[in-house]
Design a protein that fits this description.
By secondary structure, the chain is mostly helical. 61% of the residues lie in helices and 11% in strands. It has 2 domains: 87 residues, Winged helix-like DNA-binding domain superfamily/Winged helix DNA-binding domain (Arc Repressor Mutant, subunit A, Orthogonal Bundle); 64 residues. A 3-stranded antiparallel β-sheet has the order 1-3-2. A two-stranded antiparallel sheet has the order 4-5. A hairpin with a 5-residue loop joins strand 2 and strand 3. Helix 1 packs parallel to helix 6 and helix 7 packs antiparallel against helix 8. The termini are far apart. 20% of the residues are buried.
């Protein structure tokens, strides 16, 4: 979550579930994708300040567990609307980048309309169904059997298996969201 776009989404997503103080929020962010993209205080707290200045969240003081007061962050109605907009209208990068898509997926249930949830999942499925490869030769994707390097071949095998598993799940979830008449 290095970029401002997905950091905004995850901050709003977590605060959309419940109010939190900054330390709790940072712990939730780390639990979501911190092992892939750690969040520094130098990124988190300025992002919180920007969201607060835009009226998307507000802070208030509460008594702490040991008499120390702490700042609690709460999403505003405008923040909830922005969260829903970001979930409803993800960027192409939000759809194509697996880490960003998984961050989006972590909060997709916040969209109350199953048809809007399905539209996002359909975009991801369409992306995954488009032929592609990490490696190109003469402008065409390299096939697994044609890749001579064992490590690059391994990347292709793992990517294919992950893509097939995700496509299967997406189709199953879409069937649940859009049952046949």
């Amino acid at each position: 979550m290095a970029s401002g776009g997905d950091l905004t989404l995850t901050i709003l997503g977590f605060l959309g579930r419940r109010p939190m103080h900054g330390y709790e929020l940072k712990a939730e962010l780390a639990a979501l994708t911190g092992h892939l993209r750690p969040i520094s205080d130098g990124a988190l707290y300025p992002a919180i300040a920007r969201l607060e200045s835009k009226g998307l969240l507000e802070r208030h003081e509460e008594a702490g567990a040991h008499a120390a007061r702490r700042q609690v962050l709460t999403i505003t109605e405008a923040g909830r609307e922005e969260l829903h907009r970001r979930l409803r209208e993800p960027t192409d990068l939000d759809i194509s980048d697996q880490t960003r898509f998984f961050a989006l997926l972590a909060f997709l249930s916040a969209l109350p309309d199953p048809a809007e949830q399905a539209a996002v999942l359909r975009r991801r499925l369409a992306f995954l169904e488009t032929p592609g490869s990490f490696f190109q030769k003469s402008g065409r994707p390299v096939k697994i059997k044609d890749e001579p390097d064992p490590y690059r071949r391994g990347m292709l095998i793992v990517a294919r298996a992950a893509s097939q598993a995700e496509q299967k799940w997406l189709r199953e979830r879409l069937a649940e969201l859009e049952p046949s008449p």
